User: Which sequence fits this backbone?
């Protein structure tokens, strides 16, 4: 009885004041939200941020305003030092080099103005050219400079515009104030807790101290996991957050907007993206349906085989799973080349069936071993045809395995890049992943990919949570 | 017609279409890689492709570099992933299921998108793209594949063994090294296989993460195989990769598949 009372008191004492804690949490969330939504992120005057990358390519870090499209802008870049990789000697370049943008597309990463960014002739009369993001120069007589040491970050103010400068100062005050408030609430909770603890007996205090020590050890490992998760999710979160602004470049917050989502669903997005989405869906469905049918039949067959045959077929089944994408892709590519197959939608579908089916087989097999093997024979004995027996006896039992195989095949197909890349041919067929690849190589990401990515993320999260809940339920039963 | 039905009334034969399909689209293509490696453009037998590989310093260097990067990446993933899996598998840990799920979730998102996101993050933070970015990106992409199998084996581990070791006087450290680590080795092996194999054969990721500055073996193969005249040489490079993969999967044996099959 007395022990219960102790326990009760310890419990209440160790609980921080819940109201205070929750107020503190709300405040922190609020100040984070206001910070994200603040004009700090918005661009208020026209600054062009250029970065000269390691290969000499120029990337615009902020958007060019629409009004500047088509204008000629001279931007001079400060003193640069270039290192010639072959000679390993620093080359001093002229103080200013003029970048002349003949067309401003307003989209960063696509300043495809010229192939060579600049060229100059040194004292000995040798011509040096820096090429933009190219593997090899077109003309081998010109030496290629690979810039190793650069001023990597430069900012240029080109013009003043009538764009009203928004005051940024107040938001920092709000931010600091909220942070202070959060800190104050936390301090309050600690003080309240200490006071309560003082009222306890020494034995109770000792128990509490021990409990806290145990918790603290726990905190260390939990902190590790959370830090890992934060790092793991930082890039994902970045894309998800910036799907809610209509800025063309990631990292430039121009206010909250659903425009990208609207574009995605009304088909206003890039035509290439739209067709890529459709092809992805079609290919995934075809591959999943085919591999589910093929895989289920194969699983039934394998299950009824003798041990040796079974071993051989199981090994065959595991080959596409062991093979990395690139090997599967290349070997199929060589097959289609050798057979003079023209590559396109059909070859991609076949390739997807190849690497999806083994997983279907693996998800149906356990179901078969759980089932009574004699029911099928019994159905045949009672006069059912094999097709009837399959439909009315086997399928109801195998259904869950087939479904999970189907879903797995769908996700594998949507996710695939390597195999698709080698089997899609050159007819302009793009799935989502190959589209992302070519898009990323051009520099920059089509903005509508961001909402698409966010939606995929949420769907995946929902599916995983659903599976988890279902598994838990089954376990409890 | 009835004859056909007769054949398919035995359920063993139901696997035939699949076996045929696999023979045509899995076995034959793999044989073709070998055939192409040993022939020239006109289809005559030659071993010149192989001699070219062994005297082609760029290819050899790229190959060694890729293997090195893969080894590094696997080591980093193991160093980061093992503690995470261990912590999650602890019995007194709060909400392990949700945590494990959160670690697996990124695996289901297209790895190219994740890579592009990493590139954008580096750009936004003003960090340079290069070898560091490459290692970060690879580790970021493949860490879940390391954590999950280890977590699985640790969770299935019989906890009474640990308790027995403690009863017999082992301290935490000895208990960890002598009992827990050896018991979790199957998971570690399959984790290593699941990280090493895709890393060594990776292509596309390296180009995006390093602005085309660093080329891995996968990209090299891609370059050659898509060039019509050099297709046979590309086949040789693929064969080399295939051998590496074969060796690795031999090392990992069946564990990888057992663990990998339970990802859903």
Assistant:
């Amino acid at each position: 009885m007395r022990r219960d009372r102790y326990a009760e008191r310890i419990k209440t004492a160790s609980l921080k004041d819940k109201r205070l804690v929750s107020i503190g949490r709300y405040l922190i969330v609020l100040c984070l939200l206001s910070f994200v939504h603040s004009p700090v992120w918005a661009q208020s005057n026209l600054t062009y941020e250029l970065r000269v990358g390691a290969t000499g390519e120029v990337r615009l870090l902020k958007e060019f305003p629409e009004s500047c499209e088509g204008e000629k802008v001279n931007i001079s870049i400060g003193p640069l030092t270039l290192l010639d990789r072959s000679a390993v000697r620093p080359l001093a370049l002229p103080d200013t080099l003029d970048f002349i943008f003949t067309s401003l597309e307003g989209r960063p990463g696509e300043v495809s103005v010229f192939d060579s960014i600049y060229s100059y002739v040194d004292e000995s009369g040798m011509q040096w050219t820096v090429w933009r993001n190219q593997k090899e120069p077109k003309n081998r007589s010109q030496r290629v400079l690979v810039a190793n040491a650069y001023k990597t970050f430069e900012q240029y103010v080109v013009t003043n515009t009538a764009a009203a400068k928004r005051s940024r100062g107040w938001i920092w005050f709000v931010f600091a104030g909220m942070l202070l408030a959060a800190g104050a609430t936390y301090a309050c909770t600690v003080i309240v807790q200490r006071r309560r603890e003082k009222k306890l007996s020494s034995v109770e205090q000792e128990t509490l101290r021990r409990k806290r020590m145990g918790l603290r050890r726990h905190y260390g490992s939990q902190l590790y996991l959370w830090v890992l998760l934060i790092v793991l999710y930082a890039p994902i979160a970045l894309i998800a957050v910036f799907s809610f602004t209509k800025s063309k470049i990631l990292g430039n917050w121009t206010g909250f907007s659903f425009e990208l989502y609207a574009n995605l669903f009304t088909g206003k997005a890039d035509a290439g993206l739209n067709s890529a989405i459709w092809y992805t869906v079609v290919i995934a469905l075809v591959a999943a349906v085919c591999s589910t049918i093929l895989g289920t039949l194969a699983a039934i067959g394998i299950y009824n085989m003798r041990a040796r045959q079974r071993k051989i077929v199981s090994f065959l089944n595991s080959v596409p799973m062991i093979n990395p994408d690139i090997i599967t892709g290349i070997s199929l590519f060589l097959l289609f080349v050798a057979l003079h197959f023209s590559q396109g939608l059909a070859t991609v579908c076949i390739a997807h069936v190849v690497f999806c089916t083994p997983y279907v087989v693996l998800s149906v097999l356990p179901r078969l071993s759980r089932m009574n093997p004699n029911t099928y024979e019994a159905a045949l004995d009672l006069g059912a045809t094999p097709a009837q027996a399959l439909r009315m006896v086997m399928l109801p039992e195998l259904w869950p395995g087939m479904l999970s195989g189907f879903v797995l095949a769908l996700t594998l197909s949507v996710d695939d890049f390597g195999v698709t890349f080698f089997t899609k041919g050159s007819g302009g067929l793009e799935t989502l992943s190959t589209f992302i690849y070519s898009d990323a190589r051009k520099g920059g990401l089509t903005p509508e990919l961001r909402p698409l990515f966010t939606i995929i993320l949420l769907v995946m999260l929902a599916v995983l949570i659903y599976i988890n809940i279902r598994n838990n339920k089954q376990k409890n039963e | 017609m009835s004859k056909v039905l007769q054949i398919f009334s035995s359920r063993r034969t139901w696997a035939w279409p699949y076996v045929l399909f696999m023979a045509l689209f899995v076995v034959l293509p793999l044989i073709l890689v070998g055939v192409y490696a040993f022939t020239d453009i006109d289809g005559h037998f030659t071993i010149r492709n192989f001699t070219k590989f062994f005297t082609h310093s760029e290819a050899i260097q790229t190959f060694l570099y890729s293997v090195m990067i893969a080894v590094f990446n696997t080591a980093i993933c193991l160093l980061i992933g093992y503690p995470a899996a261990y912590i999650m598998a602890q019995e007194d840990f709060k909400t392990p299921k949700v945590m494990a799920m959160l670690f697996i979730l990124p695996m289901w998102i297209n790895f190219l998108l994740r890579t592009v996101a990493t590139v954008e993050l580096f750009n936004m933070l003003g960090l340079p793209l290069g070898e560091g970015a490459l290692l970060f990106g690879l580790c970021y992409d493949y860490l879940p594949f390391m954590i999950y199998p280890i977590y699985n084996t640790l969770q299935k581990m019989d906890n009474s063994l640990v308790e027995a070791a403690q009863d017999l006087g082992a301290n935490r450290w000895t208990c960890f090294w002598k009992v827990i680590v050896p018991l979790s080795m199957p998971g570690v092996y399959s984790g290593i296989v699941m990280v090493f194999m895709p890393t060594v054969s990776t292509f596309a990721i390296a180009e995006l993460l390093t602005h085309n500055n660093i080329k891995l073996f996968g990209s090299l193969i891609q370059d050659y195989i898509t060039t019509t005249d050099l297709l046979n040489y590309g086949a040789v490079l693929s064969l080399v990769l295939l051998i590496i993969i074969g060796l690795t999967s031999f090392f990992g044996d069946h564990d990888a598949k057992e663990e990998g099959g339970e990802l859903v």
Observations:
- The CA atoms of residues 174 and 371 of chain A lie 65 Å apart.
- Residues 52-151 of chain A form one domain.
- Strands of chain A lie at 47-52, 58-60, 73-77, 81-84, 89-92, 97-101, 116-121, 127-131, 143-144, 154-157.
